[in-house]
Amino acid sequence: MQQGYDAIGRLSQMASGATTYVSGLSFNAAGQPQGFSYGNGVAATFGYNQRLQLESLRYVNGSQHLLVADLSLDKQALPAQLTRRHLGAPTPVAHPSLPRFCVKSLSGMPIIEMNGLSKTYTAGFWRKKEKFALQPLSLSVEEGEVFGFLGPNGAGKTTTLKLLMGLIFPTAGSATILGRDCGDPAVKAQIGFLPEQPYFYDHLTAGELLDYYGQLSGMAAADRARRAAEILERVGLASARDLALRKFSKGMLQRVGIAQAILHDPKVVFLDEPMSGLDPIGRREVRDLMQLLNDEGKTIFFSTHILSDAEALCDRVAILHQGELRGVGSVADLTSRSRGQVEVIWQGASAVEAVRALGGDCRATGETVRALLPEDKLDAALDALRRSGARLTAVNPVRSTLEDYFVERVSASPQEVAS
Amino acid sequence: MSARLASIAFNTFREAVRERVLYNLIFFALLITAASVLVGQISIGIERIVLVNLGLSAISLFGIVIAIFIGIGLVWKEMEKRTLYTLLARPVRRWEFIVGKFLGLVGTLVVNAALMAVGFFAALYYLVHAFDRSDLHLLAALYFIILQFIVVTALALLFSSFSSPLLSAVMAFALFFIGSFAEDLRAFAQMSEGAARWLTVAAAHLVPNFASLNVIAQVAHQQPVSADLMLANTLYALFYAGAALCGAVLIFERRNLK
After folding, report:
1. Is the pTM here over 0.80, yes or no?
2. Residues A212 and A359 both lie in one domain
3. Which domain does A389 fall in, by range?
4. Chain A interface residues (partner B, CB cutoff 8 A)
5. Which ipTM was obtained for this model?
6. Are residues A134 and A241 in the same domain?
7. Contact at 8 Å (CB) between B160 and B152?
8. What phi, psi does B28 have (nearest 5°)?
9. Most CB atoms closer than 10 Å: which of A15, A44, B151, B175?
10. Cα atoms in the Cβ-side hemisphere of radius 13 Å centred on B198
11. Taking CB atoms and an 8 Å cutoff, what residues of chain B touch A198?
C-alpha cells in the first residue's frame, strides 16, 4: 500500500452528523484507491467491490477544497456516488458500472450570476393586478458546478430559465452569464438550452434540425456535419438521423432537445426539467449524459422537481417556492445532516425487548433485526446487545435526505426563510 | 445578408414547401387549363382579355391568400409551439428572426407565382398561338403582384407579432380589401368636408394602396405600364412593407414569450 496522494477534503457521511476531512487516500500497486484515513486517525479500507477507478481521480495540488460525498463506510455497500472537484483535467469514468470517485475543479469563478432578478406579470382589464412570478432572486453558480434548481410545479423555475435565456424580460434586476449580460448574442454562442417538453420543427429530420441550429450558432458546414453525427450517436439517435421529427416519441424528442443544446459545445448548459416524461431507463441515460458533460468541464444548471435526480447529480441546489428562493446549499452538506437517529442491525432476536425498552423501533426478519433509535441511546443499546450475546452487524447514522430539506424549506414560513 | 438570416429564410421556405403549400399549384393548373379550353369556346375575339384577367387575378389571389394564412402564423406558431425557445437561445437577434421569416415567405410566394406564371403563359400560348411585344406588359403586372405579396406578408407579420391568428387574418384581409379600393377611398375623401375630410384623407393614405399595384385590366387590354409607375410602385411597396416590418420588429423585440 502506498500513501501517495495527498488528497485533502471533506468526506461526508462519515461519522454521525460530522463532516470529516480525508487526510490520506491510499492506493494499491495497481494505482487504485484502496482506503483512506480520516479526521480522528482511523483508517478505513474499501471493500472488495468498493474499488474506485483511478482514471477519474486526479491529484490535487493546492486545491481550495476537494469534496467527496456519499461515500459509505459500510463494507457491503458501494460508495454510491462521489462528486468530483479537482484541479486537473477531468476524465470520464472508464467503467460507468463501477462507482465513481470523482474529483472536480471549481475555480470559484461565478459563471451565472443573478442580481435581484424578478418578474411580475400584470393582470386584469386595467392591468392593475400584479402577480409575482419571481421574487427578486440573487444567486450565483460557479464554473464546473452542477446546479439544481428545485421547486414544485409553478415555483418559478421555468420563469427564471426564460429570463436567463432572454425569452422574457425581467421587471427588475439583472443576470450575467460568463461575465456578460445574459441577452448578449456573444453569450448565447456559448450556452445551450433545453426547454421543458421541447418541441421542434416537425417538418425537419433530426439531422436537418441540428444542421439548422448549427448554422444559427455560427458553426462551419464541415463542423456541423461532424458534430451532428457525433451528438446523435451520443444521445442514442444515430439511426433516427433521417427520420422526420413528427414521428419522434416524447423520449426521442427529449434526446433531440439535449442534442441541440450541446451541439455547439457550449460552456454552460441550461436544462429545464430534462428528465420529465422519460421512463426510468431514459432518465438514467440522461443523468449519465449530464454527468459526462460535467466531467468534460461544462457547467450545468438544471431545474427539476424530481429530488432523487438532483441528489444524484448536483453539487449545489437552490429551492424555489412560489417564486421565492427558500434555500441554497451543497447537496453533500444537506444530506449529511444527522436526524438524531441511528440504525442498528444485529443477529439474534433475544435483544429486541431490551432495545424496544430504550425507545427503539425494531423490525425482525428471521434472526436479523433492524432497529431505529435515538442517537443518545446508542451506547445503552450496544450494551444491551452485548449482554444478550447478539452479533452486531452494522450501526449507521440516519441522515437527512434532500427531500427532508426540500419539504422543510418549502413549508417554512417567510419569516423562517428570512432568518 | 447574414448567414443566420439566410438560414431562417431557407427554413421558412422549406417548411412551406413541406407543409404542401405549393399544392395550390394543382388547383391553379386545373383552373387555367379549364379556362383556356372554355374561354376559347365561349368568348370569340376577347379570349385573350378574359384569360389574362382570370390568370393574373388567380395568381394574385392565390398568393395573397397564402401570404395571409402563412404570414399570420409565422410568429404565432413558433411562439405557440415554443420552437422559438431553442432558436432565441442561440445567437439570433429577434429582428433577424422577423426579417428571416419575412424573406422566407416572400421567397416562397415568388417561387409559387413564378410556377403559376409559367402555366399562365403556356395557357396563353395555347389560346393565341403567338406572343407579341405587348405581352411584356404582363411581366410588369406580375411584378406588381409580387410587390403586393411583399406588402401583404409584411402586414400579416406585423399583426402576427401582437395578435391571434384569427384576428390577424381578419385585419389582413380587411386591409387588403380596403386597400384594393384605395383610389375610390381617396376620391371619396376629396368629396367630404370638415373634420370628416381629414379623417378620410388620413385613412385613405394610411391603407396600403393595392389599387395602384393592380394593373391587370390595363395589361389585359395590351396597354403599357409606364416606367414612372413602376418606380413609384416599387418605392411605395418597399417603404410600406419596410414600415410594417419595423413595426413588427419593434413589437417583437419587447415581447415576453409565453
Report:
1. no
2. no
3. 338-399
4. 162, 165-169, 185-186, 188-189, 191-195, 198-201, 203-204, 212-213, 215-218, 257, 260-261, 270
5. 0.90
6. yes
7. no
8. -60, -45
9. B151
10. 2
11. 82, 85-86
